[in-house]
Write a structure and sequence with these properties.
This protein is an alpha/beta fold and 384 residues long. It is built from 14 helices and 14 strands. The strands form 4 sheets. A 7-stranded mixed sheet has the order 2-10-9-8-5-3-4, sandwiched between helices. It has a 3-stranded antiparallel sheet with strand order 11-14-13. Helix 3 (65-74) packs across helix 4, helix 11 (263-283) packs parallel to helix 13 and helix 13 (347-363) runs antiparallel to helix 14 (372-382). The longest helix has 21 residues, at 263-283. The radius of gyration is 21 Å and the shape is globular.
Length: 384
């Protein structure tokens, strides 16, 4: 028997794909310039408005989330201009690398990894760099399990600057509220393989009227990542280049599933999964990498720097029991262990992960009481 089919993927992306979405993507191929694909694009774009919290029509790119990050940079800021990037982890650092690669003057606000950026920190930095054309932020910093207060940070930028507010929402949209128009965010991007429960390969971008006015002034627009080309094509219910048709079928089904659950229920479920995970880990006496205020509802990090055992050994033991969790990135490699709990994930999945975590700790020789984390999480689940 192929027991690999029973494996539990609990990394912060790619995430497990529901059977219903798999079946939707298995439909026969259709012509990418035909009426069926045009209708599919229109249905997806309409449903995406609720995901982003916008009245504008989101764009759908065939590419990873990084393609959307790059598109957000090169369509809004030109070489020689200035930009601010808030770095709270590896993906803020990726934004900074893209900015630097294209000859844009980078002003980098580094926040200690494991902490969110506060409005006060951003206020002084924005005031110190009044010529910045855009401020790039990360909503959920996957590498550190931190959720940044995007609403408050966007307000700071608007109060103290004319810069565009550009946000990476790849690892949390579909799990947390996003009110792009109300928060005055100019560009919000996300990807398919996180809370949207799809394979990698789609990137979605929502753009404000204010941002379009800037994009239209670009003197040397990119080719494949030209957002104006996607906008013009979307107005005709098409794409400028070949779309990932099967993934569009999956996206339509994923958004339908989220709508059926109800957005408020989706957000509440992710908060509950976060509380169960963090409470269970604390019951084992393990340190968490982020505080409760900054913690993301989509991923939780165990701080391996404060324990006697190796996080990579923990991951190996858990993998042998068919549960896969993630390690750290960059200088946190081998220092933390991350548990993803977004998308196609429910309370029973968390109980499974915690149970296997306990057994892996026992194999490492750590003295714990078996069942203690599961019991603590069950109490959260039962709200007792």
């Amino acid at each position: 028997m192929n027991w690999q089919d029973k494996a539990h993927l609990r990394i912060p992306g790619p995430t497990p794909i529901p059977l219903r979405i798999q079946q939707a993507m298995a439909q026969p191929m259709i012509g990418h310039r035909g009426q069926a694909t045009s209708q599919l694009l229109q249905e997806c774009a309409t449903s995406l408005r609720a995901l982003f919290g916008t009245m504008s029509t989101p764009l759908i790119l065939t590419g990873s989330g990084t393609s959307a990050l790059e598109a957000a940079v090169i369509n809004t800021v030109q070489p020689g201009e200035e930009a601010i990037v808030v770095v709270t982890g590896a993906f803020g650092d990726r934004f900074a690398k893209i900015v630097k690669r294209y000859g844009i003057t980078l002003h980098r606000l580094d926040i200690p990894w494991g902490e969110s950026c506060s409005p006060e920190q951003l206020t002084s930095f924005v005031q110190a760099h009044p010529r910045a054309k855009a401020v790039f932020l990360t909503y959920c910093e996957t590498s550190t399990a931190v959720l940044n207060p995007i609403n408050e940070l966007a307000r700071v930028v608007r109060e103290h600057s004319d810069a565009l507010v550009v946000v990476d929402g790849v690892s949390c949209l579909g799990a947390v509220p996003c009110l792009m128009d109300e928060w005055h965010v100019d560009i919000m991007v996300t990807g398919s393989q996180k809370a949207l429960m799809l394979p990698p390969g789609l990137a979605m971008v929502a753009v404000s009227d204010r941002a379009w006015a800037v994009i239209e002034q670009q003197t040397q627009p990119p080719f494949y990542l030209d957002l104006l080309a996607y906008k013009k094509s979307m107005e005709q219910a098409s794409t400028p280049y070949t779309p990932a048709v099967s993934l569009l079928y999956g996206l339509k089904e994923a958004l339908l599933m989220l709508e059926e659950e109800g957005w408020e229920n989706v957000f509440a479920r992710h908060q509950r999964l976060k509380r169960m995970t963090r409470t269970g880990i604390r019951a084992l006496g393990l340190p968490l990498f982020t505080n409760d205020q900054d913690a993301s509802p989509t991923v939780t990090a165990i701080d391996g720097r404060q324990v006697a055992w190796e996080t990579e050994a923990l991951r190996k033991h858990m993998s042998q029991m068919k549960v896969t969790i993630a390690g750290g990135q960059q200088h946190l490699k081998g220092q933390i262990a991350r548990i993803g709990h977004m998308g196609f994930c429910d309370e029973l999945d968390i109980l499974t992960v915690l149970s296997v975590l306990e057994m892996a700790l026992v194999k490492l020789g750590v003295s714990i009481e078996l069942g203690s984390s599961v019991k603590a999480a069950q109490e959260v689940m039962l709200d007792v």
